[in-house]
Amino acid sequence: MVDVLLVLLAVLPPLLLLVYYYSRIPTTISLMRLLLFFALGAISGFIALYLELVFETVVQWVVNWRIIQRSLFGVVLRQLIEVGPIEEGCKLVTVIALTKYFQHRYRLRSSTVFLFCLAVSLGFTAEENWVYLFHGFQGIPSVVERLISTPVHAMFSAPWGYALAMLVNASIYSSRHNGRVSQAWLNSVICHALVNVLSIGGRYSFPWSLLSYGLFPFLLWMFLRLEKYLQKLQGQDPRTLISGLTSKQHLWREFLMLLTLMLGGNAIFVLFTLTRNLSVLNRLQLFDIDVALFVLSRLSLSLILGLSAWAIYRYLRRLASRRRYF
Q1: Which of 93, 80, 89 is CA-nearest to residue 190?
Q2: Which GO terms describe its biological process (predicted)?
């Protein structure tokens, strides 16, 4: 029964997110066929895991790879030359194969190819969730972490997914077009590596522990970027947040946008840490006055950060909308 529950916790969140994007993107591809792409994404996740194990075994013969990974430099190196390239490469190959197969049978829309990318990435997420929950399950904190990370692989792959989508009616295998996809893929690899490094920043001593405060703002920025790509593919005008007639105005609004991401991202981070702290307490401790005051203070802080971010966001939206009338 526990195993079935873990499978559901691993698969249902990315599956529901896929259904959500399927409802937003007009396509002739049926939902059942899209579930096949989801399954292929999970298979690509197992392939990536196998390739990573092979990579680490081979490299261990040359250098003491396990010792190198104990330092922050080693962690960054592993993410850049192993995890990011292998995982983003497996997803990219899967989506290209699907696009090539269906391009000979249907006239694919650009948004449909982007949906392929999302389906494969979310299937990859389901496989990763399964691995983490079955082999590193630590109760509620593990479940919360996996729920929060549900859209992350889709956000990683959005740049090369968009690049492929824009080339659906052209030869995506020409050298010029391959260059565009390659640049977007490299962008995804770097973002993938950066998120993984930021997520473990709290394990290290000061000042490296401060890296963890950059995780959720960066994730929020990647989510906004994914939505921007989707709006472009659907012929919608992406929401403008940074405008200005002079370089000084433009720079000021860039700063405000960065501040919005920092405030909004860390509002989520406060809730995340609060959930992890409460999960280790027993039921009686939850009714303790000190715990109640702590929860109230954390919720208040998160609310203040979130409302501040929302106020600045609305301010930037008003400034951008006014500019259209000049």
Answers
A1: 80
A2: proteolysis
- Please indicate, yes or no, whether the overall pTM of this predicted structure exceeds 0.85: yes
Tokens of 122: 């979310």
Instruction: Write the pLDDT tens digit of every residue in 52-77.
Output: 999 988 888 888 878 888 888 888 89
CB atoms within 10 A of CB 318: 10
Task: Select from 200, 188, 220, 213 the least CA-distant residue to 124.
Answer: 188
Sequence letter at residue 46:
F
User: Cβ contacts of residue 303 below 8 Å, gap of 6+?
Assistant: 267
User: Closest Cα partner for 160 from 225, 107, 214, 108?
Assistant: 225
Three-state secondary structure call for residue 207: coil
DSSP class of residue 108 equals -
Query: Which amino acid is located at 309 in the chain?
Result: A
Cβ atoms within 10 A of the Cβ of 304, count?
A: 13
pLDDT tens sequence across 108-142:
788 889 999 999 999 999 999 888 887 765 555 56
Dig out the tokens for 95 from the structure: 């989506």
Write the CB contacts of 217 (distance below 8 Å, at least 6 apart in sequence).
261, 262, 264, 265, 266
Tokens (6 digits) for 162: 């968009």
Separation CA 211–CA 201 (nearest Å): 5
Task: With beta carbons less than 8 A apart as the criterion, state whether 31 and 19 touch.
Answer: yes
Please give the DSSP secondary-structure letter assigned to residue 212.
Answer: G
Q: Would you say 91 and 153 are in contact if contact means Cβ atoms under 8 Å apart?
A: yes
